[in-house]
Amino acid sequence: MVDIVLDRVTKRFGSQTAVDALETTFGSGQVTCLLGPSGCGKTTLMRMIAGLEVPTAGRILIGGRDVAGLPPRQRDVGMVFQYPVMYPTLSVAENIEEPLRHDRSVSGGERAKRVDEMLDVLDMRDLRDALIDELNTGLRQKVAVGRAVARHAEVVLFDEPTTNIEVDAKLTLIRAIKAVTTRLRQTIVYVTHDQTEAMTLADSIALMEQGRIVQQDAPRALYAAPRTRFAGWFLGNPGMNYLGTEVRDGAVHSPMLAAPIPLPGGRNGQVVLGVRPEWITVGAGRAEGEVTDCVIGIGGRRLMTVRLGREVVRIKCSAAEAVAPGGWVRFSVPPDRVVLFDDKGEAIAALTQGVPA
Ligand SMILES: Nc1ncnc2c1ncn2[C@@H]1O[C@H](COP(=O)(O)OP(=O)(O)OP(=O)(O)O)[C@@H](O)[C@H]1O
């Protein structure tokens, strides 16, 4: 197994910096998801790892080896793209086997074994002899996954492989990718702007904004303890609530808190209190606001929009707890579910809480 080390990797297109002095490691045998808004540099970074784009500055090391100057073929990197290239007149099994035929180190017996392994883990045994032309886009993409990983490359790169797939087939494909990555423990870099996909697949999420990785953490840690307001907003549906909150006598005062939270450093003034909609407890508390909207979400949960003074708070709750628009609701937040941010939008480290379950 190999890790991927990025050593101040930069890519500029003219005056535009697409990737900005990235310095990090993508763990060996792990799935790292590159997540971020459109244009933040995910694909460019991926293409540099693959050798399809040359960095303007910095080094990329795969398994300790500087890959500068190595063409894509010599990098031992498999790839799955949005639009896979396949042989329409060959069967599923033949398509998976095809790249292995070019590898002299893989014997005929070994090839057959790997094709069987792929059909098995992708749950495609029944489709072994089906032609690619007969498959829908979701199944074709599964075959593309099989082709890319059957080579047993040390590194496999996925560039938004589920983008063109219908919703139902998407879940099946994600499950298949999860099964493959868990079984083979290759080092995976997976580009997506779909946070659910990243939360499902990733051992580690590298959240990108404007060519930089702003936070790299396990999905649960990134979700529970965002280090910036951007991270709190980008993850979650909807993202974190942010409320301007007063600091007085060395403590944070908010009607949402049962008691003030002491703030080290003796600062006074304002901080921003961040809280996720589902972390708010409904039914009791000092905060009371008017419900302006209430909609049904995933699993029958309700998303209420509540006016609290001049602020707007979104709250996720059960159907039984929900209050119709025009009604009033009381609510509170436990102190260990609060993230405080300074005026630059950075979490106040001393108060970043542990990762709640
Ligand atoms: N070949 C190129 N020439 C000029 N600019 C480019 C080129 N490739 C990418 N860029 C620019 O670099 C920035 C990063 O692009 P990139 O495609 O890497 O982002 P992304 O995060 O993958 O976006 P998306 O999610 O939309 O695919 C963008 O501003 C883009 O316009």
From TrEMBL:
Which domain of life does this protein belong to?
Bacteria
Q: Does the keyword Plastid apply?
A: no
Which organism is the protein's source? Rubellimicrobium roseum
Homology family: Belongs to the ABC transporter superfamily.
The record ties this protein, via PROSITE patterns, to: ABC_TRANSPORTER_2
Matching InterPro entries, A to Z? AAA+_ATPase, ABC_transporter-like_ATP-bd, ABC_transpr_FbpC, ABC_transpr_MalK/UgpC-like, Mo/tungstate-bd_C_term_dom, NA-bd_OB-fold, P-loop_NTPase, Transp-assoc_OB_typ2
Q: What is this protein called?
A: ABC transporter ATP-binding protein
ABC transporter domain location, by residue? 4-235
Q: Name one GO cellular component term.
A: ATP-binding cassette (ABC) transporter complex, substrate-binding subunit-containing
Q: Sorted alphabetically, which keywords does the UniProt record give?
A: ATP-binding, Cell membrane, Membrane, Nucleotide-binding, Transport
Pfam family membership, one: TOBE_2
List the molecular function annotations (GO) for this entry: ABC-type ferric iron transporter activity; ATP binding; ATP hydrolysis activity
